[in-house]
Design goal:
homodimer, two-stranded parallel ribbon, 7-stranded parallel β-sheet, Rossmann fold, 310 residues
Chain lengths: 310, 310
């Protein structure tokens, strides 16, 4: 297949490029490096079936090559410090960026695959979150540039499916970690692991009782690959339902990386969700998928990559 | 002042044009007539302080005149049959249209005024709805092309205010009626009144126990005018909190228009909100505003306009 991936130099995007190249597909990567990393493009630059286009997909996707089978829209700043630094760009890649991808897919008769997010559930009143939950998002808060952009991206994807017949997929990605995350992405696993490796105390927001679930990247990529093969157009959660309080996560990091970790508490950020955990029954039934990699195992898989980064 | 109004040929837009011209301002109207009516432009075409630009604001606002004081973004299909007929256009006028208005306001150092909607509350779990309620919207439902577009419009308006210093206003408009609504707009007051005038039975969705509140256009315009004069950037509800079940509304229509009205019931549309009622305490405190025109009075004000339309 010929697959165009926006955000190919991002964390998730770069793992998709790797997977599809390994499976024998042709991949066109697109990124503007607003949050992606040139090093993630360099990994594949010499590969005969990889092409890279440096472009901001919010202003158009300048692809003029052979017929595409899939357009996969994974471009967006995704961590709170990044999207809050680029609120307008984040809103645009959710709206214009998604629409440009849908138009390209429509022109090629290709499938369109949207990377949405558990952030569409906001600070949820239902726990765990099934795909049928409509969410609790502050439309004017400091996180809304990301959350509302992704909700809009889902709405326009469904509109192109319903009114223009585009063969669409939507996933809602829950917290995911693995090699090639930006060390400065500001998310808790990255923060904890880098703080531990530097021998610094771990920074916990509030009392550390808020919970998150953490999915290893390989589980996510497997779920994406399976969903491409199934005709299903509504959103599908992909995440690991094992739930950890931040103080429990700190203990696992201590086990894997270093002894005698200290913690310091700083105030909770605005609109920070208190808990988030996927209901993955739909993915289980639809795709025969469930996450295989425990937090302990995933951190062990991550560990050698991080030490190389230091 | 020099005021540019997108959606100037729409129902609310045309009343704003009238108000501002009457107050001595200069008005530039912009509309593409996707749901606006040429007759609403014709009303002002000869006015020396009115200019009209036919354009789709989602593709840019081709204004090159003197410095603007306000950009008021009121363009959008707003009734369910219209926006469901034009889902992509509705999404675009909420995203690209809003952003084009914000950019124009930014370039002119003008204020930007967003017409948002009670639809951002979706099918609310909190009743009545204060501005602090985050809403209950289905991001992938058939109404999401409108609801999510408006939530996105609020988010990008706040982003331009926070990150680029644009002097913004946001109102959330609850059901509003008055002269110059499209006879085919599909909303309940229009449907009931036109059915009554034609001697047809009134069409009630479900058992008619769902509630709505109805604001007469003059109250809305007064609220808009007052908010322009106050420095406040978060959303403000403008609506009439008097709540009516559909079967009660039918009785008022009977009183005003015709005796012995029949009703027929048809199934509820998808995701139709069961109730919607504004909390208007904020507007009361901030603007000294509250709606003055009762449903009975408003329908009497509307009546001569409708008979002229027949």
């Amino acid at each position: 297949m010929r697959i165009l991936i926006t955000g190919s130099a991002g964390f998730v995007g770069s793992h998709l490029v790797e997977r599809f190249l390994n499976e024998g597909h042709t991949v066109i990567g697109v990124d503007n490096y607003i949050s992606g990393q040139v090093s993630n493009t360099d990994l594949f630059r010499e590969h005969p079936r990889f092409t890279f286009i440096e472009a901001d997909v919010s202003h158009g996707i300048p692809y003029t090559g052979d017929s595409l089978d899939w357009v996969m829209h994974f471009a967006s700043p995704a961590s709170p410090p990044h999207y809050q630094q680029f609120p307008v760009e984040t809103l645009m890649v959710g709206a214009q960026g998604t629409q440009n991808g849908l138009e390209l897919a429509h022109a090629h008769g290709a499938g369109f695959f949207l990377a949405s997010t558990s952030e569409v559930y906001g600070d949820p009143h239902v726990h765990p979150q099934p795909e049928t939950y409509w969410g609790n998002v502050n439309p004017i808060g400091v996180r809304s540039c990301y959350d509302e952009a992704k909700r809009y991206a889902e709405a326009i994807t469904m509109a192109y499916h319903r009114s223009r017949g585009v063969n669409t997929r939507i996933i809602r990605i829950f917290n995911t970690y693995g090699p090639r995350m930006r060390p400065d992405d500001g998310r808790v696993i990255t923060n904890f692991v880098h703080q531990a490796l530097r021998g610094e105390p771990l920074t916990v927001y509030g009392d550390g009782s808020q919970t998150r679930s953490f999915q290893y990247i390989d589980d996510l990529v497997e779920g994406i690959s399976r969903l491409m093969m199934v005709e299903y157009h509504e959103p599908v959660n992909l995440g690991n339902p094992d739930e950890f309080m931040m103080i429990e996560l700190a203990k696992v990091v201590e086990d894997v990386f270093v002894n005698n970790i200290q913690m310091v508490s700083i105030p909770l950020p605005l609109d920070d969700p208190k808990q988030r955990k996927p209901d993955v029954e739909l993915a289980r039934k639809l795709l025969g998928w469930s996450p295989n990699i425990s937090l302990q195992k995933g951190l062990n898989l991550l560990s050698p990559h991080l030490k190389n980064d230091q």
